[in-house]
Amino acid sequence: MRNFCIFVLFDNQNCTMTELFHLSTENHNGEIFFPRVPKTAAENEDTITPRICFAPSFEKCVLAINPAGDCCAEYIYFVHVPVDAKGIHIPTEAEVPDVDDTDEVWICSPVELKCIGKAVVTYSMLQDMTVEFVPLSA
Q1: What's this model's pTM, rounded to 2 decimal places?
Q2: For 36-92, how does the pLDDT look when each residue is reduced to its tens digit (9 = 90+)?
Q3: Inter-residue contact 54 to 107 (CB < 8 Å)
Q4: Rounded Cα gap, residues 69 and 67, in angstroms
Q5: Fewest CB within 10 A of the end CB: N or C in the chain?
Q6: Nearest CA to 62 among 18, 22, 33, 90?
């Protein structure tokens, strides 16, 4: 995977470096996103904390959005990175039960998004998932 944007995340135990991605069905390049409780939050997820959800890979983003997928379906998402990440929160299992699978990260303050391309997500008959990244033309 090609590196596009690197942010340093700090938690209480480690200093880790990772990329953060946000997928959307619309291009939000240059827009400021404000934290909110996602409409798609699962019943057993935190439905109180406003946030903007990110993950360290396109695949992990897809797992957070559509974990089961639909057989023989294709989805196209715009891939965004945060321009300046502040108010980063790494949710616990109590907040997001599948956080160990998705590595979901929340940004809990307004953030500008930069669109870097599209992710074409395809599910096969066997429920295998492939993700192809298509960068934006310069």
Answers
A1: 0.79
A2: 998 888 889 999 999 999 999 988 998 888 656 666 778 889 999 999 888 899 999
A3: yes
A4: 6
A5: C
A6: 22
